[in-house]
Design goal:
three-stranded antiparallel β-sheet; disordered N terminus; binds S-adenosylmethionine; Rossmann fold; alpha/beta; 10 strands
Length: 274
């Protein structure tokens, strides 16, 4: 990252400050990502350079909050990338049909405000070929705030988010949410299949024997140094023959491609061959 004139510690100074002052671990994320987010806030605040912006951060609580908000990549949605969810239906049916399997264990990691695991829970109930009573979902995120929103399961249509439209892949959304004007509450039947848990995917290591793991739209932000370890966590959480779903622009690292066979390549659904 090039330094502006008079830009003392530059972006690193801002990052160090953020590390000490707000509950965020910048070390996991790549510098290009951090740089873009910080630059956007600097522009909003008319800061001349990184040092100037750091001084704003030091004196302004609101700006610290705004920066934290900008750094936490919490964008999500119900049925984000609808084609993937369509391709997932046969996978879920097959997992439910497999003889001798006690249930289907799914890991939504990370789950942000819960719309990803709720989509899965709703899809399981919506699809006639899936026995939703066999599906168990563990949904994790590093952010307590995201988890609180996820547990509450209340979403609102705003200028930028149309919840009714997000739920359109379902045959009857009202079976899964209670709607009052622009507010949508996820029903207990949908919630009952999910356990939420705080978890750091870089630090906390793998789960075990998962049949289906979602890790979407986190790897793109993670620094190369941590990416390999995070991917090992995902792999080691799967039982052989289990499935992995990545975000639309994410791929299996070259060193692990032999272990993951694409099932629906464009949708980023892979089978772990073990
Ligand atoms: C862009 S959201 C992705 C949500 C969902 N998977 C999706 O694709 O819509 C990224 C989430 O990753 C969480 N996160 C960031 N670092 C994490 C970590 N080390 N362990 C677990 N979750 C993390 C953030 O709190 C945020 O909620």
């Amino acid at each position: 990252m090039s330094r502006a004139r008079g830009d003392g510690d530059g972006l690193q100074g801002v990052i160090d400050f953020v590390e000490d002052a707000v509950p965020f671990e910048p070390g996991y994320y790549n510098e290009a990502y951090l740089g873009r987010r910080v630059a956007a806030r600097m522009q909003r605040r008319d800061a001349d350079d990184h040092d100037d912006y750091r001084r704003i951060l030091e004196r302004d609580d609101d700006e610290r909050e705004a920066l934290l908000d900008a750094l936490t990549i919490n964008v999500t949605g119900f049925f984000r990338d609808p084609d993937m969810w369509a391709d997932l239906r046969p996978v879920l049916r097959e997992l439910c049909e497999e003889n001798g399997r006690a249930g289907v264990d799914v890991w939504s990691a990370p789950c942000a405000d819960g719309r990803e695991p709720y989509s899965l829970s709703m899809l399981a109930a919506d699809d006639r070929g899936v026995d939703e009573r066999r599906v168990r979902i563990t949904a994790i995120d590093i952010s307590e705030e995201a988890l609180a929103a996820a547990r509450a399961g209340v979403y609102e249509t705003t200028r930028t988010t149309n919840i009714g439209e997000e739920l359109s892949p379902l045959s009857d959304p009202t079976a899964y949410v209670e709607q009052e004007e622009d507010v949508f509450r996820v029903r207990e039947s949908v919630k009952s299949r999910i356990e939420f848990e705080q978890y750091d995917l870089v630090r906390d290591g793998p789960k075990a024997d998962m049949d289906l793991v979602f890790c979407r739209n986190l790897l793109i932000y993670i620094d190369t140094e941590y990416k390999g370890r995070l991917f090992e966590t995902l792999r080691d959480s799967l039982r052989p023959g289990g499935y992995l779903v990545l975000g639309k622009t994410e791929t299996v690292p070259p060193g692990m491609r032999e272990e993951f066979e694409p099932v629906a390549k464009r949708s980023r659904i892979y089978r772990y061959t073990g």
